[in-house]
Amino acid sequence: MLLVSVQMFINLDQLLNKVNERKNGFDFISISKKINDENQTIKSVFDTQEIKELQSKPFVDGVAPLIANEFRVHISAQGIFGTDLFLETLENEFIDTVPNSFQWTEGQMIVPLIISSDFLEAYNVFAPGNNLPQMSAETVTRLPIIIQCSGQGKQISMQGRIVAFSDRINSVLVPKSFLDWANQNLGEVSEHGATRLFIKTKDANNPDFLSYLDKKNYLINKDKTRLGRTKQTLQAVFSGLGVFGLLVVVMALMLFSFYLQLLIARSRDSLQLLLLLGYSPTWLSKNVSRQFIPVYILIVLSALALTQVLQWAFHHTVMYDRPELSSTVNWVVVLIAAGLIILSIVTNYRLVRKLLYKLY
Amino acid sequence: MYLQLQNLLPVYFEESKKQTSEIWGKDLQFEKGEMIKIVAPSGSGKTSLTHFIYGTRSDYTGSIAYNDSNIKQFSFENFAGWRKDHLSIVFQDLRLFSEQTVFENIDIKRQLNAFHTVEKIKEMAERLGIGKKLGAKAKTCSYGEQQRVAVIRALMQPFDFLILDEPFSHLDTINRQIAMELMMEEAKTRAATIILADLQRVDFFPYTKIFYL
């Protein structure tokens, strides 16, 4: 049981680590605070202390707040459509596609935008039904967009141009310099704070990371961490199994020690006489315990063989020979089996010696 | 190699024993090669003394030392080594493996530390008149035969001190003499000390020192 749980633990790890390999080795995920009936009256924003705490965690490689507009924004495109929208900004490092034109300095009339590729897809889905033309990504980037920002009694009209699409960030992004400037000039909110944070992490499925987020009541993209959730659950199940297996091992050792005591009690006279004649307790212990070594080795090897059969069956029938896994047991399992043999031999020897000393 | 007894007394004996005994409460030293005869009536602590010297009991006051090392400081391993190389004993109650054969009972000591060859077992057994019993289980032998088995077993290893506790109690005079001769020869080849404790004087034991317990 112990060996199988360890092997499954390793399988799980290998399976999920392969799935999660990224080209640049990082996951980027956004988190926000959970809004429910109790806290919806309070502003659910992250303060600087919370950001600092997140940054200090070992499983977090970087945190950046998504800062939103604090004024009203209306976007329209050549009479094709017009809508109230939100703008957000994020550090360039966290954006997957940043063209050189994604810059803004004060006085510049054209504001570059990066929008989620999902938005274009969504537009193309509803466009035909609303008598609007469907558009390709190239067309959209050429489309002149009017951005009307209003606040503090002022209204500013700018030109916008979509410069890139992001697969990662589900938002409309503008350069930080623009939003800072606009928030300062038009912003109607005194309190600042980010409603969303972007986290850069090596493994979004890290169970420590997930349980930390749960504890903090932070909301996260479920799909990106679904594997992690499964891993968390399965790991708990196999940990439980492993602990149970360990318990069984301990109990078996105890049972065996009772058996040994009985055995030694039964041959007490003979052993006592041997000691009396000058046979050394150490020599006798070695010889008595040596009798059991083949038994221990046989038991552990059978367990190992069984684990091997199960692993092969698991790989072959459940996992359809997936290349991430191996049909043979992991070396760690073999190591644990060897450890078990050594553990039983050593405890056995020490016990026999202790019992023999009592006979003296 | 010498054995020292200093002010020895079993804890269950009264101090007054020291006045009447030549061993209890006295300071004695037995040198290698001496033949020590201890005459001890029943209840005078003869078996206790042999067990104290052999290290199987330690309920005494005073001290016992081999070459100045007190045996109360000995570890179990020390004792095992000491019994293997320097001390041999014939117990009053013999202590044989009743389920093993006579040969196995003798050979077990030889295997521990062989002083003689296997052939010597047969030779000694013949000499003591139990040659035909070698294949028999010890429990099927008479007490006299078992006594001779215990004597031969004690002679299978090297020793500096041979401790005998009433070794001839169930032997007739001829067998006593043969056994004694055998033990004397064996002690001589090892230049060893014999300490013989018995109820009465055994006339054919050429002792160099005699003590009344």
Radius of gyration of chain B: 17 Å
Report the C-alpha radius of gyration of chain A, rounded.
Answer: 33 Å
- Give the integer mean of the pLDDT values of chain A: 83
Give the termini separation of chain A: 40 Å
Average pLDDT reading of chain B: 91
For the largest beta-sheet of chain B, the strand count, sense and barrel status come to: 5 strands, parallel
DSSP strand (E) fraction of chain A?
15-25%
Helix content of chain A: 40-55%
Distance between the termini of chain B: 23 Å
* H/I helix tally of chain B: 7
Overall spatial form of chain B: globular
Provide the structure class of chain A.
Answer: alpha+beta
The class by helix and strand makeup of chain B works out as alpha/beta
What ranges of chain B have pLDDT less than 50 throughout 5 or more consecutive residues? none
Q: What general form of chain A does the structure show?
A: elongated
Biggest interchain interface, per-side counts: A-B, 14 and 17 residues
Tell me the major beta sheet of chain A. 6 strands, mixed
Q: Got a strand count of chain B?
A: 9
How much of the sequence lies in strands of chain B comes to 15-25%
The secondary-structure element order of chain B is EHEEHEEHEHHHEHEE
Low-confidence stretches of chain A: none
